[in-house]
Specification:
Elements (H helix, E strand, L loop, with lengths): L2 H11 L18 E7 L6 H8 L2 H4 L2 E7 L3 H10 L4 E4 L3 H8 L3 E6 L1 E2 L8 E5 H5 L12 E4 L5 H12 L8 E4 L3 H9 L5 E4 L1 H10 L2 E6 L11 E5 H6 L1 H23 L5 H14 L6 H10 L3 E2 L7 H13 L9 H4 L9
Parallel strand pairs: 1-2, 1-3, 7-8
Antiparallel strand pairs: 3-11, 4-11, 5-12, 6-9, 6-10
Helix pairs in contact: 2-11, 2-12, 4-5, 11-12, 12-13
Length: 342
C-alpha cells in the first residue's frame, strides 16, 4: 500500500469515531430565516421539493432559494454569509475556503452509480463527425469546464486517466457558466463536455451533441455534489443545521422514489416532476420535461450521506494538481458528525 493510500485512510479515520447523530425525534428548531444556494438543475430537485412541500417549514426553517450558475460563487456566498447552506460540487475554490476556516462539507448529494443514469460525456456534432466518437478519442481535443478545479475538470481527469490520455493532451476551455458551455458545445467551439442527463439529453434530442460515454464508466462511486455550510453554522448552529438535514433528507426520499428507483405511484411521479418543472426547463412543455427528468435522474444519497472515500480522492487530486494548499487537511474540510458516511 502506498503512503498516499495510508495517509488517506488515516485522514478518514481521524475525522471522528462518534458517527452520525440520530435526527429522529428531535424537536423542530424555532423559526429561522435560511438562504439556500442552488442551481437550476434537476439534480437540485430535493431543495425544490422540500420548499414546495413544506418540509423546511415543518422543521422551523423559512428557506429562501438563492440561484447560482457555478459551484465557486456558491462556496463564496457561504463563506461571506450571503447563503447559509448550499448543494454544490467540491472545487478548488471551495477547498481553499475550507482551509481558511470559512466553510465545511457536512453531507453528500448527487453521486454516480453504475446502472443509474448519470453524467453523460458529449461530443459536439462537428467533433463527432471528425472522429470523436468515444471517450478514448479525446486526445488532442478541447473539453469544456467552468473553472479549474471544478467538477467538470475532475470528470475530465477521471476520463483521461482511465483511457491513458495525458491531461496535457486535452485543451481545457474555461467558460465559467453552464449555459456558456452548452452554447460552445452546440456551436462546435469546444469538442467535448460531461454533464448530467437533464441537460445532456436535451442537447441529444435537439441534435446539438452526440453521446460518447458515461462518467459512471470511469468514476462509478463519484460524489458529484455535496452539502455545504459555514464553519460557524456547523459548529455553533447545530439544531438549525440538523433541521436542514432532516427536511432535505425527506425530499431526497421523495425524489429517489419517484425518478430514480421508480417505486412511487404514477401520480406521485407526476407531482414530483411538476415541482422540478417549476424551477427547471419551465419553458418546455411538461410532458417533454418530465420525460427528461425521469429518464436522466441521478442518485441522491439517502439522508445526505457522504461518500467520503470519493470526496477524499478529490481532495488528494486537487493537492496533486497544486490547486489547493498542501496544508489543508480532511478535518478542515469535512464535518461528518451530521450524516452517515458510505
Amino acid at each position: 500500500m502506498t503512503n498516499l493510500a495510508i495517509n488517506r485512510r488515516q485522514a478518514i479515520v481521524g475525522l471522528g469515531t462518534a458517527g452520525a447523530l440520530t435526527l429522529l425525534g428531535r424537536p423542530a428548531f424555532a423559526a429561522s430565516k435560511v438562504k439556500l444556494g442552488v442551481m437550476r438543475l434537476a439534480s437540485h430537485a430535493p431543495s425544490y421539493i422540500a420548499c414546495e412541500r413544506g418540509y423546511y417549514k415543518d422543521e422551523g426553517l423559512d428557506v429562501e432559494l438563492e440561484f447560482f450558475e457555478a459551484a465557486q460563487p456558491m462556496a463564496m456566498a457561504i463563506a461571506s454569509g450571503d447563503a447559509d447552506y448550499a448543494v454544490t460540487a467540491m472545487s478548488g475554490g471551495l477547498v481553499n475556503l475550507a482551509g481558511k476556516g470559512a466553510i465545511k462539507v457536512i453531507g453528500g448529494a448527487v453521486s454516480e452509480e453504475k446502472g443509474v443514469a448519470g453524467a453523460i460525456i458529449l461530443a459536439s456534432e462537428k467533433a463527432y463527425q471528425a472522429g470523436l466518437t468515444t471517450a478514448k478519442d479525446l486526445n488532442g481535443k478541447s473539453f469544456g469546464i467552468t473553472t479549474a478545479g471544478s467538477s467538470f475538470h475532475y470528470m475530465c481527469h477521471k476520463i483521461a486517466e482511465a483511457n491513458g490520455i495525458p491531461m496535457s493532451e486535452i485543451s481545457l476551455r474555461r467558460l465559467h457558466k453552464v449555459d456558456a458551455i452548452v452554447g460552445a458545445l452546440g456551436t462546435g467551439q469546444i469538442d467535448a463536455w460531461a454533464i448530467q442527463g437533464s441537460i445532456a439529453n436535451e442537447m441529444l434530442a435537439e441534435g446539438s451533441a452526440k453521446q460518447i460515454g458515461l462518467v459512471s464508466d470511469y468514476a462509478p462511486d463519484y460524489q458529484v455534489t455535496t452539502v455545504l455550510t459555514s464553519t460557524n453554522n456547523a459548529a455553533n448552529e447545530r439544531e438549525k443545521t440538523e433541521a436542514f438535514i432532516t427536511a432535505h433528507s425527506r425530499a431526497i426520499d421523495d425524489y429517489n422514489a419517484a425518478v430514480v428507483d421508480k417505486t412511487a405511484t404514477p401520480e406521485e411521479v407526476d407531482e414530483v416532476a411538476k415541482i422540478i418543472h417549476k424551477y427547471v426547463d419551465s419553458d418546455h412543455p411538461f410532458p417533454a420535461a418530465k420525460k427528461i427528468f425521469v429518464g436522466s435522474a441521478m442518485r441522491i444519497n439517502t439522508g445526505c450521506a457522504l461518500t467520503l472515500e470519493s470526496a477524499m480522492n478529490q481532495l488528494v487530486w486537487l493537492k496533486e494538481e497544486k490547486m489547493v494548499s498542501e496544508t489543508i487537511r480532511a478535518q478542515m474540510l469535512f464535518d461528518i458528525s451530521y450524516v452517515e458516511t458510505i
